[in-house]
Amino acid sequence: HSVGAPSRLTFQDYPGNSGQSAAIYGKLAHMNAKKAGPKTAKNAKKKRCILILHGPNLNLLGQREPGIYGHETLTDINASLASQAKAASVELIAFQSNHEGDLVDRIQAARNEGVAFIVLNPGGYTHTSIALRDALAAVAIPFVEVHLSNIHAREPFRRHSYFSDIAAGVICGLGSHGYRLALDFALNRIR
Ligand code: CA2
């Protein structure tokens, strides 16, 4: 990853349904195509992808406080998530920023990019950011909130999150495995 810059981890098209439902989908698509005429940009199937969003200081992973946050770097985690998404033929976008406004911009942009699901570790903004919460509520893209550490077993100020009540779910305390579980959930949800 690079701080402040999005990294496209995979570029594969979302394949849509598979097996029996693919056959049904194909048939319906064919019937609709007859009625609607040739495919236009408007009715073309939109690509769906998953956005992994990392908040402030998570660029330091693996370099400091391994006792709390583990030994893996953010690059390691993103690479692992990328291969997980690739195996499911889904495109993944990973973005980390130390700046609240950049994270808000990234969430707003997601609406126009076919992002179907967000996996979010808001970092320290978990406990402070109404702006990030408002952005997620505005785009109405479902998300899972992930924390490496168990925020309920630490200082009292970490117990409150501005995101948990509007999240599809919350995972905390499972280290980097939490991201993989969240992505697994997201991959199943958008199928
Ligand atoms: O446990 C988590 O994932 C947190 O979201 C991490 C945030 C913290 O403010 C939240 O309460 C819980 C902090 C991220 C800081 O990451 C560092 C990584 C390595 C070294 C120092 C900080």
Q: Could you name the key traits of this structure?
A:
191 residues; alpha/beta; 6 strands; globular; disordered N terminus
Gross morphology is: globular
Mean of pLDDT: 82
Ligand types: ligand CA2
Count of helical regions: 6
- Our Rg estimate from Cα atoms comes to 18 Å
Unreliable segments of 5+ consecutive residues? 1-39
Would you count the extended β strands for me? Answer: 6
List the helices and strands in order. Answer: EHEHHEHEHEEH
- Look at the helices and sheets and give the structural class: alpha/beta
Strand order of the largest sheet: 1-3-2-4-5-6
What does the main sheet amount to?
6 strands, mixed
Estimated helix fraction: 25-40%
Strand content: 15-25%
Kindly report how far apart the N and C termini lie: 27 Å
What do these coordinates show?
- 37% of the residues lie in helices and 16% in strands.
- The protein is an alpha/beta fold and 191 residues long.
- It has a six-stranded mixed sheet, sandwiched between helices.
- Helix 5 (130-139) links the parallel strand 4 and strand 5.
- The two termini are 27 Å apart.
- Residues 57-58, 60-61, 64-65, 69, 121, 123-124, 126, 147-149, 151, 158 line the site of ligand CA2.
- Ligand CA2 binds next to loops.
